[in-house]
Amino acid sequence: MKYDVYGVGNALVDIQAQVSDELLAASGFDKGIMTLADDAQQQKVLAQLQGLPLNRCAGGSAANTIVGIADFGGKAAYVGKVAADEVGDFFLCDMRKMGVAIEVTPAAEGQSGTCAVLISEDAQRTMITNLGVSATLTEADIDEEEIKQSKYVYVEGYLLTGESTKAAAYKAIELAKKHNVKVAFTASDPFLVNMLRDEIWSLVEGPVDLFFCNEEEAMSLTGKDDPIACAAEIHKHCETVAMTLGANGSILMHGGEAIAIEGVDVKAIDTTGAGDMYAGGLLYGITNGMTWKQAGHLASHAAARVVSQLGARLANKFTAEDVQKLIG
Length: 328
Description:
This protein is an alpha/beta fold and 328 residues long. 40% of the residues lie in helices and 22% in strands. It has one domain: UDP-N-acetylmuramoyl-L-alanine:D-glutamate ligase. A hairpin with a 5-residue loop joins strand 7 and strand 8. It is globular, with a radius of gyration of 18 Å. The chain starts with a strand and ends with a helix.
């Protein structure tokens, strides 16, 4: 196979900054969640960050996961939409530098998407997202030949919020099924599950082979309040469930079996990209010969390493020896 995973997502450049609670309050956005902003709101937020040390990287949920796979040495491709501007050029260069195959037809008009990630002193991240032209991704951008040569297609839930991006997500899933390629889908955010519960359920019951969620998303989806019961309920309809439990690790459900994955004790500095990196570790593992338990173990350590630093990119990458030691 040419690729382990082909990712589909909103192409955004993450702009991360550590901020005081005062600055966060002044931004007017709710703490700890993702909020969509229009062009003017985003410019105002970015202006408030002037003078602060900023970290910039190609981002968006699925892009973070795809880069994680490439970081481990996996073969990954990505499709998203950027404009012909400096931010868009940065996105493409950053992804290619990480070893990700990406071909993008630049959108003629508008600006590339950005996500201001405001990290408060308690390690919470408040994300203010301006989708820009990433919201113009369409089914015409999905490459059947590339999907055909992949082991998994990975789709982020955020795509379901726009008509053309939703069409692109469904096209990727349809082509994956046509070519017997596995489909992985991430719930992305509790607010999304609350908003699109029925649609996400129909995906879980239908084409999705591997469903990623955290316990809050799983509870919202199933209406149950016990994490194990949530995972078991989802697993009735889906081949594999990967549910993260924050510091308590994660649960994998596969083949009717619950596989408990321990958490890794670290001091959290920034939770940006923890779930994305977990998905990257798990997808890399299962497309490169690991058992589900081994892949879960790797994913848990990858997520722990990313929360113990600033930003969604691993500053201290796993070597082949690190991986071997972890999976024993």
